[in-house]
């Protein structure tokens, strides 16, 4: 097992402390027997120093243990959960510094209270195993928390797109093909990236789930020709973001899983933010939303025109709103969800989520529970299945019966790829509070219906729901 020096010092310190306590020695006792100073021994136990060979020999003699046992990387049974965590390199991949927790502070905590920290970590690992939580799930959760901390708005990235516009003016005149060709030419001339728009095939098998992949250290981009032009434009703009921001450590394809580190995911987010900011101007979308919110009546056509005005897919426009609304309109309590509906299984899955200000429902649930059929997403998805265009927009007010919190929900359902058996639905939820009431004039339009909703059928306390898709064998209070 390859191990870094910092973790090596921590393991040695934990072993030394454990062996010392087994002998009922204080630091002064061990110092007296070994001839080493108490302060030096304290620094070793805290993982700040690793002793030289001759000093390890002194310690092994003082503690009456074999030299090889003292330097081995195996910890005692009580600290096995810590051992598992270090073997899996979880401590090193967690970006604790992002949240103001330097790694040395964590190491100090482990060194001071190894048994208690080990018990805590063991509990977390047990929960992770029980719910099949992978390291990627932890990375995504950390990213969502970081976005929440910053209101999902980053001035430095907004400024980078403005610098790019000054250097490479990008005037979108509504012609998506011209924009695509311009983005490809920028990648080729400015960043020496060759774009290959093609059917993605590997060893004779079509890669249905891959939208793009890169080769030659990012100098060759293979782009699926099965995508719509707006989806292609977003990928091209994000690729420009990787190169303009000089990002090297990044995922190699659209399958953002099995990541090497949190840095990969965060860099992917930064390039995606750049792409959205580049093609959805901050000033323009603020102006469009301001004019829309002033209207006293809700119009589905007005809503559609806002979303379709930009050269990016609906998901990107909805997500851009999560960056703009909290900052410019002070609508800070919102959620964003992307659902995927499998027609064969007739099942919804939340594939992407963001909750700002608090963990607001609904959110992703692992398992076989059925998401509430009274949500807007269910209605617009079923309509999209029969819609000639395969696209359906919708709006509703949802009151979550268990939390008694009400949200204005805006949504769109569409088929992301022409022959896909899955439909994608995007929902943006804005908490109905005094701030929202003062910002959106059409909020009380009677055309916007109010629905009582739950989270999943299995957890729902709504009596006699005609749309329930799951049986409840026990009364709700026992579930």
Describe the protein in words.
This protein has 479 residues and is an alpha+beta fold. It has three domains: 5-130, lambda repressor-like DNA-binding domains (434 Repressor (Amino-terminal Domain), Orthogonal Bundle), CATH 1.10.260; 155-279, Arc Repressor Mutant, subunit A; 315-478, no CATH class. It has helices at 5-22, 27-34, 38-45, 53-63, 67-71, 80-87, 90-93, 103-112, 114-130, 135-149, 155-167, 176-191, 229-244, 262-279, 282-293, 300-308, 314-328, 376-386, 434-439; strands at residues 194-198, 201-202, 205-206, 212-215, 220-224, 334-342, 347-356, 391-400, 405-414, 422-431, 450-453. The chain has a six-stranded mixed beta sheet. Strands 1-5-4 form a three-stranded mixed beta sheet, covered by helices on one side. A two-stranded antiparallel sheet has the order 2-3. α8 (103-112) packs across α9 and α11 crosses α14 (262-279).
Q: Which features characterize this protein?
A:
479 residues, alpha+beta, 434 Repressor (Amino-terminal Domain), Arc Repressor Mutant, subunit A, 3 domains, 6-stranded mixed sheet, 3-stranded mixed sheet, 46% helix, globular, disordered C terminus
Q: What is the overall silhouette?
A: globular
Distance between the termini: 45 Å
- Mean of the pLDDT scores? 84
Tally of separate helices: 19
**How large is the radius of gyration?**
27 Å
Largest sheet: 6 strands, mixed
Strand tally: 11
- Tally of structural domains: 3
Order of helices and strands: HHHHHHHHHHHHEEEEEHHHHHEEHEEEHE
Contiguous uncertain segments of 5+ residues: 473-479
Q: What portion of residues is helical?
A: 40-55%
Strands side by side in the biggest sheet: 7-6-10-9-8-11
Percentage of β-strand residues: 5-15%
Structural class: alpha+beta
């Amino acid at each position: 097992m390859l191990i870094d020096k910092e973790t090596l010092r921590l393991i040695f310190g934990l072993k030394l402390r454990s062996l010392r306590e087994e002998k009922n020695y204080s630091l002064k006792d061990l110092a007296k027997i070994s001839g080493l100073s108490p302060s030096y021994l304290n620094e070793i136990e805290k993982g700040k120093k690793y002793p030289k060979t001759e000093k390890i020999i002194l310690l092994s003699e003082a503690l009456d243990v074999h030299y090889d046992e003292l330097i081995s990387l195996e910890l005692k049974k009580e600290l096995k959960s810590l051992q598992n965590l270090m073997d899996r390199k979880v401590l090193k991949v967690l970006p604790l510094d992002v949240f103001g927790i330097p790694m040395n502070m964590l190491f100090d905590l482990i060194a001071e209270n190894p048994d208690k920290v080990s018990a805590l970590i063991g509990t977390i690992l047990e929960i992770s195993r029980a719910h099949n939580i992978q390291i990627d799930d932890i990375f995504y959760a950390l990213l969502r928390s970081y976005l929440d901390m910053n209101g999902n708005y980053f001035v430095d990235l907004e400024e980078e797109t403005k610098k790019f516009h000054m250097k490479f003016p990008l005037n979108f005149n509504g012609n998506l093909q011209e924009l695509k060709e311009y983005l490809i030419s920028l990648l080729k001339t400015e960043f020496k990236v060759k774009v290959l728009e093609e059917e993605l095939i590997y060893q004779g098998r079509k890669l249905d789930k891959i939208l793009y992949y890169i080769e030659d250290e990012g100098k060759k981009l293979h782009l699926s020709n099965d995508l719509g032009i707006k989806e292609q434009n977003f990928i091209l703009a994000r690729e420009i973001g990787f190169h303009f921001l000089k990002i090297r450590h990044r995922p190699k394809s659209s399958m953002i899983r099995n990541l090497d580190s949190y840095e990969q995911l965060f860099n992917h987010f930064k390039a995606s933010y750049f792409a959205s900011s580049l093609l959805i101007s901050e000033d323009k979308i603020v102006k469009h939303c301001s004019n829309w919110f002033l209207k006293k009546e809700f119009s589905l056509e007005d809503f559609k025109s806002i979303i379709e005005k930009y050269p990016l897919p609906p998901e990107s426009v909805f997500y851009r709103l999560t960056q703009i609304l909290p900052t410019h309109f002070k609508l800070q309590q919102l959620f964003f969800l992307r659902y995927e509906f499998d027609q064969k299984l007739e099942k919804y899955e939340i594939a992407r989520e963001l909750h700002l200000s608090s963990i607001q429902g609904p959110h992703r649930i692992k398992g076989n529970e059925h998401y509430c059929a009274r949500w807007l997403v269910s209605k617009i998805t079923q309509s999209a299945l029969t819609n000639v265009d395969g696209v359906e927009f919708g709006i509703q007010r949802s009151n979550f019966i268990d939390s008694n919190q009400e949200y204005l929900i805006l949504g769109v359902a569409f088929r992301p790829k022409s022959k896909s058996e899955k439909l994608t639905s995007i929902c943006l939820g804005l908490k109905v509070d005094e701030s929202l009431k003062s910002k959106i004039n059409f909020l009380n339009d009677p055309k916007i219906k109010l629905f009582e909703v739950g989270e999943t059928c299995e957890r729902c306390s709504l009596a006699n729901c005609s749309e329930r898709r799951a049986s409840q064998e026990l009364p709700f209070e026992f579930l």
